[in-house]
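CO-FOLDING WORKSHEET

Operator: S.A.
Ligand of interest: thiamine diphosphate
Run index: 411
Mode: holo prediction, single chain
Checklist:
[x] sequence pasted
[x] SMILES validated
[ ] output reviewed
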Amino acid sequence: MTARSKPKKKPVARPAAKAPARPAPKPAKRAPAPGPKAVPTETAPTGTVFFVLEDDGTVARGKDPNLPRDVLLFLYEQMVQVREFDRRMLMLQRQGRIGFYGPILGQEAATVGSVAALEARDWIFPALREGAAAMMRGLSLTTAISQLIGNELDRCKGRQMPCHYTFKEGNYYGMSSVIGTQISHAVGAAMAARIRGDDVVVLGYMGDGATSANDFHCGMNFAAVYRSPCVLFCQNNQWAISVPCSKQSVSETIAQKGIAYGMPFVRVDGNDVLAVYAATRDAVARARAGDGPTFIEAVTYRRLGHSSSDDPSKYRDEAEVKAWERKDPVDRFRRYLTARSLWNEAAETALKERIAKAVNDAIAAAEAVGPPADETLITDVFAQVTPQLREQLADAMAVAGKRVNDGAFPL
Ligand SMILES: Cc1ncc(C[n+]2csc(CCOP(=O)(O)OP(=O)(O)O)c2C)c(N)n1
Ligand SMILES: [Mg+2]
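OUTPUT RECEIVED:
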């Protein structure tokens, strides 16, 4: 709505004289663009963040969702497992045992809490940092590490970058590096499920950086117009490689972008696993009931580099990282569990030992597997391998046989 300025005094009517030839109308003066005070606009939402756990792990009054003990412990164990997996994989990369890794330190609650709110039949369309979701759906640690190595057990047969897991049996769509594309894929898959009459909700992830991509706008619009049974979940970890969120958008929040598409939205503390779980559970229920999509912004922080190739000390202040360390999602949730007598030191030690052994065993098992057969370079392209591809493989092998591999990651 625009506010009009009061019309000036009406000009006094004069008796009509003999009308002279009408002068050509002067081009209308353009009114100056009204300043912000003259045009009351819809106010943006306040940017309120929904949370359950205070930073010290105590519960905000009346907000405890009172989840059953087994759900609480499942959430905690998954968060600890992904943290340990992450730590070890980054070490393997530094030791030259895998070529590349994208750490998620600090974002464990956002992934674990949201995936746990789904039913097993629901689909997951990951962005860059949701590998834990595949593991929660049953992708074994050995198969996950095989993907990072690109060995024979790797479902992508070494043809994808590390961290690009895919797990069809777990309804986990293969990750694409191309930012934002999975948003429209998620929306479309949800529409397809509805057309087929499948009782399936799709959870589609994105980073804050993806909200600047075309696919975000197409995906959000289609989802809202067609009431696609999906939940679009933005992990706002404050950075898109070296670009801070403030340079990504001047909107006060990412969540409020839902307004433009007429989509319900919620801004949730992404380092609070209970809040993420509760917000996603409500959104999933809405989608399943036929009430359309929800947009969730999980406010979190990428504590390490964008990937093992990145050095964030070049572009951000260490004090910022320290401030977010105090909001650590794992510590915070452990304090909550401990206060409720669901956790103690002995349980922590036992869990850490169990996970360390599982990760060690998985590394050993994956490293014992050889590379994919040369033939796999040309399989899975056509149902039957064409003579041209066979010829190309033979040529490639002739060249590769002569080349000395210097071990450098080809990026
Ligand atoms: C379409 C496209 N543009 C640029 C890139 C290069 N790129 C890779 S990751 C990334 C930043 C992604 O940031 P964000 O969406 O916030 O996810 P995060 O890495 O923080 O999880 C960019 C720009 C890309 N992969 N695809
Ligand atoms: Mg980001």
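REVIEW:
Residues 128-129, 177-179, 207-210, 213, 237, 239-241, 302, 306 surround thiamine diphosphate (ligand 1) (CB under 6 Å).
The radius of gyration is 27 Å.
[x] output reviewed
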